[in-house]
Specification:
By secondary structure, the chain is mostly helical. The chain contains twelve helices and no strands. The radius of gyration is 18 Å and the shape is globular.
């Protein structure tokens, strides 16, 4: 995922050039690094390329999720201004979600079957995740209304997330001998709007949640135009 790391570096440099405060810089990184590759990216990839897209879209989504659960929490915690690097790392270690990854991998690799009653409970809990995230995002957007928001900064973040990031992915994918399908899926997943989970992280750690939620909202709305254009170019 060299394109992912390179785009993250360029976004960090852009934040420095625009002289964001430490908190705003980290909020900018939250809004532009992490993509909504699960709820949005996988269905769109399947719409464009059918079931064969899953062989690449699903692993990329898993990598994005792992990256967000570790690096995203670190960025949010370090941008709160309430502690240093040690406190940010401690916030990552305190997240129960990160410890659920290892048992999940073991169950998959060792083909362990989870008891049906327990699996029903897990499925019921999992179905509440998206509604809760959307409700939280809506409540946060209500807080944004009527407040002084620098919409030029929101527009800049939207351009970086929806246009610059997929362009970088396209250039870097062209440097490696990968299949056309994988190249297209990487570009599509990179071009997704900001992940809604970043709003939860920003709220929890006080890392400029108004800015992050406004960026999530703006990139989601604008992505209907940018992704339509992108799919017409790729397909």
């Amino acid at each position: 995922m060299a394109d992912f790391r390179c785009s993250n570096y360029l976004r960090f440099v852009s934040a420095k050039v625009f002289k964001f405060s430490s908190q705003r810089r980290n909020a900018f990184l939250l809004a532009t690094i992490f993509s909504n590759s699960g709820n949005f990216g996988i269905p769109l990839a399947m719409f464009a390329y059918g079931n064969r897209a899953m062989q690449y879209a699903m692993p990329i989504m898993v990598i994005h999720t792992l990256f967000m659960s570790f690096v995203g929490i670190y960025i949010a915690a370090s941008g709160s201004g309430k502690g240093g690097i040690k406190d940010a790392l401690a916030s990552v270690l305190r997240q129960p979600m990160n410890y659920a990854i290892i048992p999940g991998i073991l169950c998959n690799q060792l083909t362990w079957e989870i008891p049906s009653n327990l699996m029903k409970w897990v499925n019921m809990i999992s179905k509440t995740a998206i509604p809760i995230i959307m409700l939280t995002l809506g409540m946060q957007l209500y807080e944004v209304i009527g407040k002084k928001i620098n919409w030029s900064e929101i527009a800049f973040a939207s351009v970086v997330k929806l246009l610059v990031a997929p362009l970088i992915a396209w250039v870097l994918c062209g440097l490696f001998p990968i299949s056309p399908l994988l190249k297209s899926i990487v570009i599509i997943m990179t071009a997704m709007p900001s992940a809604a989970n970043t709003t939860i992280y920003a709220i929890q750690y006080g890392s400029d949640p108004q800015y992050v939620s406004a960026c999530t909202f703006a990139t989601t709305i604008l992505s209907f135009l940018s992704l339509t254009l992108l799919l017409n170019i790729l397909i």
